[in-house]
Design goal:
Elements: H1 3-22, H2 25-43, H3 49-59, H4 65-76, H5 79-108, E1 115-118, H6 133-136, H7 144-156, E2 161-164, H8 173-182, E3 187-192, H9 199-208, E4 211-216, H10 221-228, H11 232-245, E5 250-256, H12 261-264, H13 267-275, E6 280-285, H14 301-314, E7 324-327, H15 332-335, E8 345-348, E9 354-355, E10 362-363, H16 372-376, H17 379-387, H18 404-414, E11 417-418, H19 427-432, H20 435-450
Parallel strand pairs: 1-2, 1-8, 2-3, 3-4, 4-5, 5-6, 6-7
Antiparallel strand pairs: 8-9, 10-11
Bound molecules: iron/sulfur cluster.
Length: 469
């Protein structure tokens, strides 16, 4: 797409979004339908015609749960946040960026991710039990210039979506806002403990419009504060009140374990976070990463099966809850299994090590020494590309958790080194903790997968592999 066409198309989307935001009822519906029409024209046959028809039907049905969700968001979220999110995450990242990325994958013959997760700092203002951030302290940082360089190089490859974790990324909130200003065509998202959110930061977020947040929670006050420290739950509730009042898009980031899985998926807990203004909730399966990890926190196979059904129930189009729930480990069918190693995402830690995934602490490239493209071509990422999908059953997607022999093999073959500077963990030690879990989950996962309709089993951007192989 030429720069002129790009600008004109972005402007057309902007106009339709303005129309959607400004008006209620009939005109809002017209604006949303115009966005669908533009998307269909722009994306061509990337999606089946019935996909667009189903969305149009949903928009025209005022009783539809997800239309109720959209209308509530349009009423409550600040217009600049809606517009910048739709333009940057929708138009630039999902539509235009995806097309560029597909081209770049062919040109460079390597994986190019759709999003990059970065740790601006290893520093954290809290000292949660079991968190690796506490071990590194304030030692490691990606400078403003590092972040800017990664994003500038990423945009050349079509990457327009960047996430932050840490450490506590909001320790660097001034730099994060500066980056939002400089790269105002990108979408940014930070995983945060929420305790550094204040009115000034909310005003900055409203002004730039291209930053959203996921706030960590472990459950209700007693359980949350046992791990995170006294008073943290109340601070998170206050942060959510400020974010809601200033019209931000935010949700929760929840690590589910054998101990908290029922609480964090209960009606009571979900009703509380919806009331607080959360639009989405990420669920992350506990991973036994690090020499001090506690394998007893791994969910049992019964708990993981419960999670599979419960998340689908929460987000079903009838019933459930008005919040978008995602389960990083059980939603493989929608993204074609493991997305790491640059296939759809990768992680850059505060030391600059470019890792396949936030949970896989091995690497052979550092972004302070090589370009983003060189890092994406490192042997470990190429081994990921050759090995994906690691399992034809997308409910067993991970080369560590569900197929631990595969990560051992890739790390040994590529010579990738542990990136844990405080307490390097051998890949044998890490994968050894997953073996029993993988064996126990296999039968349940295979049974569940056998009931997944073939058309929902996405098999995309794999090198030389088709379903049925
Ligand atoms: S490496 Fe494992 S945890 Fe990371 S994206 Fe792949 S399947 Fe998920």
């Amino acid at each position: 797409m030429s720069e002129l066409t790009h600008k004109a198309t972005r402007a057309a989307f902007g106009l339709a979004i303005d129309q959607t935001i400004k008006h209620v009822n009939k005109d809002r519906q017209k604006g949303l339908l115009e966005i669908v029409n533009l998307s269909e024209r722009f994306l061509g046959d990337d999606y089946a015609p019935e996909t667009y028809e189903n969305i149009r039907k949903m928009i025209q049905d005022p009783d539809n749960k997800w239309m109720h969700y959209v209308n509530r968001a349009l009423d409550e979220v600040h217009p600049n946040v809606i517009k910048m999110s739709a333009l940057n995450l929708g138009f630039e990242a999902a539509f235009r960026g995806t097309k560029v990325i597909r081209e770049m994958r062919k040109v460079h013959d390597c994986s190019i991710p759709w999003l990059i997760l970065m740790d601006p700092t290893s520093a954290c203002n809290l000292h949660c039990t079991g968190c690796w951030a506490a071990e590194y302290g304030h030692k490691l940082n990606l400078t403003y210039e590092d972040l800017d360089r990664i994003i500038t190089q990423g945009k050349e490859l079509g990457v327009y979506f960047y996430m932050y974790t840490g450490g506590e990324p909001l320790v660097r909130k001034k730099d994060i806002i500066r980056i939002c200003e400089k790269h105002n065509d990108c979408a940014f998202h930070a995983f945060t403990n929420g305790t550094l959110v204040d009115e000034e930061f909310c005003a900055d977020m409203q002004r730039v419009g291209n930053l959203s947040l996921s706030i960590s929670l472990e459950g209700f006050e007693e359980v949350n504060d046992l791990r995170r420290g006294d008073g943290v739950f109340d601070k998170v509730m206050d942060a959510m009140d400020l974010l809601k009042a200033s019209g931000q898009i935010f949700g929760t980031s929840i690590c589910y374990t054998s101990k908290n899985i029922e609480t964090v998926t209960s009606d009571e807990f979900l009703d509380m976070i919806i009331e607080k203004g959360c639009r989405f909730t990420w669920y992350f399966h506990y991973m036994p990463v690090g020499n001090n990890a506690v394998p007893a926190l791994l969910p049992t196979k019964e708990q993981r099966e419960y999670m599979y059904h419960r998340v689908r129930e929460i987000r079903s189009s009838t019933g459930g809850k008005e919040i978008f729930a995602m389960d990083f480990q059980n939603d493989g069918e929608f993204v074609g299994g493991c997305i790491a190693g640059g296939r759809n995402y990768c992680h850059i830690n505060a030391n600059g090590d470019v890792e396949p995934c936030v949970f896989i602490h091995y690497s052979g490239a550092n972004i302070k020494e090589v370009s983003l493209l060189e890092a994406l071509k490192q042997p470990l990422f190429m081994a990921y590309r050759d090995g994906q999908p690691f399992n034809k059953n997308h409910l067993r997607p991970c080369p560590m958790l569900e197929n631990p022999e595969l990560l051992m093999d890739m790390v040994a073959k590529t010579g990738a080194k542990s990136t844990d500077l405080e307490s390097p963990e051998s890949v044998g030690h890490l994968c050894g903790k997953c073996r029993e879990y993988a064996d126990q989950w296999q039968d349940t996962a295979d049974e569940l997968w056998s009931h997944t309709p073939v058309k929902k089993r996405r098999y995309e951007n794999y090198k030389g592999w088709k379903p049925g192989d």
